[in-house]
Amino acid sequence: MHDNRTQQVEEQMLVRKAQQGDAQIFSLLVNKYQRRLNHFLHRFTHDEQITLDLVQETFLKAYKALPQFRTDSQFYTWLCCIGMNTAKSMAAISGREPQMITEIVDDDGEQIDVLEYLSDYHTPEGQLLNRELIDAVDEAIDNLPVSLRQPIILSEVNGLTYEEIAHVIGCPVGTVRSRIARAREILSVQIKTRFERE
Fold first, then answer.
1. Which terminal residue of the chain has fewer beta carbons within 10 Å of its beta carbon, N or C?
2. List of E strands, 62-150
3. CA distances (Å), 14 to each of 38, 90, 159, 163, in order?
4. Which domains does the chain have, with CATH numbers?
5. Strand partners, 67
6. Separation of alpha carbons 50 and 52, rounded Å
7. What are the tens digits of pLDDT across the range 81-93?
C-alpha cells in the first residue's frame, strides 16, 4: 500500500512539472505509459498501425490538455479516457474483443474458474479443450452488446475500478456496476451451458 501511495505522489509531482511546461518530464510520462496504453487500445482496435496512431494522438491531446488535468486523479485513467474518446471519434474500435476471461461470477455470486471445465490442461486433449474454451469465451464476449463489452473488458482485463471505468466510458458508477454484473451473468450462463452440454 505504501509503495502504491509513494508512486502516486511521485506521479503527481511529475505531472505538475509537466503542467508547468517541462516537455522532458512529459516525455518521462510518455515512456512510462506508452506500452501500457498501446496494449490497452490494441484490445479494441486489433490493428497495430491504428493503435500506434491512436497512442500518438492520445499523448498529443493529453499534452495540450495538461492544464485541465487534476493531479488528484489517476493519470493513466485520464489517458485511457482520452484514448477511448479518440478511438470512437476515429471509428477505430472494432467489434471483437479476443482477450480471454478465465474467471466469472455466477448468479449466486460464486466465482467460477472456467478452466475447471478442462479435463486435463496439459494433455493434447486438454490443449484442444483449452482452445475451444478460449473460442467460447471470445464468442460470448463478441455477442455482448458494446455497452456491456466495454466495462467487462476494462474491469476484468485492465483491472480498472468502477469509478475509473465510469470516468472512461462516461456514465454513472451505478450503471457501470449493473452492466458488469449483467455481463458476468450472461457469460456465466453461456459458458456453463456450452460445456455442460458437451
1. N
2. 103-105, 111-113
3. 21, 30, 23, 23
4. 2-89 (1.10.1740.10), 103-197 (1.10.10.10)
5. none
6. 5
7. 888 888 877 765 5
